[in-house]
Amino acid sequence: MKILVVGGGGREHAIVKKLSESKRNLKIYVAPGNAGTEDIATNVAISVMDFEALRDFAKSEKIDLTIIGMDDPLVKGIVDYFEAEGLRVFGPRKNAAILEGSKAFSKDLMKKYGIPTAGYENFSDPKEALKYLENVKYPIVLKADGLALGKGVLICKDKSEAISGIEELMTKKSFGDAGNTIVIEEFLEGREVSVLSFVDGKHYALMTSAQDHKRAKDGDEGLNTGGMGTFSPSPFYTEEIDKYCKEHIYQKTVDAMRAEGREFKGIIFYGLMLTDKGVKVLEYNARFGDPETQVVLPRMENDIIDVFEACIDGTLDKIELKFENNAAVCVVLASDGYPLEYEKGKKITGFENFKGRDDLYCFHAGTKREGADIVTNGGRVLGITAKAATLKDARKKAYEATKLVDFENKYMRNDIGISILDND
């Protein structure tokens, strides 16, 4: 069976690793991939947004299944493009990927169908947005409507910060067209939890819970990033919370999308906030999270091909997802300066230390091969993931494993999962 994975980050490396464990005989291609994926698959030098070249490759190589890892191609309609050519593809169509592609759409959907979320208003006119600031309670949250690499969210402590934020998003266009519309949202206090689910249009199957660390610096300080580390499962995602979410969030979201004529097949990622007033949905993503995938998939026992195909065929209710009774922690090794300016091309050493280990993973993100060397090629370079019986042990093991690889300007947060130490 020939598989094409579209993407080149840590998430895609984790997907390819899981595919490589399938009981089926697979030939895996990755476009464009990275230095890690080429150890277990064949990298293809095609951009994720070059739909025509990706389609032509899938047809010429007789690809049986294409898996879209990234948000941009999904939101721009790559699934529709492939399906129109009779190609089998995993991911939501364009009219369903809007769940992530437009925060204004997803907020309106939640309001319409009674799915719990923070109070908000949408604005396309900067003057109206500024006027709205006169009567809000601070802190307040500003969100770019469109895709912004996970960074288009500003938490503003007071009115002056909010004014600057509106200018940054809507006037200066710091995130391009993503800021044409913004959401001004009530600030929620509590603990964030991520829950990923497979969806086949009607049914959903929950993966295990996880928690991301978005800020660049220790203590949740610094700028928002794509994610600096994760742990799974979250001890804060209790049976009681799970029961509430199943009643009020998960199925209601799947049903709401169907009712809107936007049947969703693929991954719905629920960003949840556990507040003292109950669980609220912070955001939806329409694909695997990064770096959540790096702690969730290594714990999944199912053959992932079976699950992908059940989503496409509408038979997910026949699949029972199973996860190992253990824990995983991922620490992201970044280039110092990320998410702003940083240097690339630094030689990475120590990969041999991960060979033959089934409890440690070195997921590549921003890497590339340069001659005989592997060098840094992005802000988030590697995701060091460890599995152990408990979260505490997995955390300890992951941080010890960060010493096994090295590169100049290596940077990481030192407090990933620190909140679990008293809750293990």
TrEMBL record:
Signal peptide from the UniProt entry: none
PROSITE patterns according to UniProt: ATP_GRASP (PS50975), GARS (PS00184)
Protein origin, superkingdom: Bacteria
The family this protein is said to belong to: Belongs to the GARS family.
Pathway the protein acts in: Purine metabolism; IMP biosynthesis via de novo pathway; N(1)-(5-phospho-D-ribosyl)glycinamide from 5-phospho-alpha-D-ribose 1-diphosphate: step 2/2
Enzyme class: ligase
One Pfam entry name: GARS_A
Entry cofactors: Mn(2+); Mg(2+)
Domain named ATP-grasp: residues: 107-316
Family matches, as InterPro entries: ATP-grasp (IPR011761), ATP_grasp_subdomain_1 (IPR013815), PreATP-grasp_dom_sf (IPR016185), PRibGlycinamid_synth_ATP-grasp (IPR020561), PRibGlycinamide_synth (IPR000115), PRibGlycinamide_synth_C-dom (IPR020560), PRibGlycinamide_synth_C_sf (IPR037123), PRibGlycinamide_synth_CS (IPR020559)
One Gene Ontology biological process: 'de novo' IMP biosynthetic process
Protein name: Phosphoribosylamine--glycine ligase
Keywords: ATP-binding, Ligase, Manganese, Metal-binding, Nucleotide-binding, Purine biosynthesis
Molecular function (Gene Ontology), one example: phosphoribosylamine-glycine ligase activity
Catalytic activity, EC: 6.3.4.13
Catalyzed chemical reaction(s): 5-phospho-beta-D-ribosylamine + glycine + ATP = N(1)-(5-phospho-beta-D-ribosyl)glycinamide + ADP + phosphate + H(+)
HAMAP family: GARS
Species assigned in the record: Lachnoanaerobaculum gingivalis
Primary gene name: purD
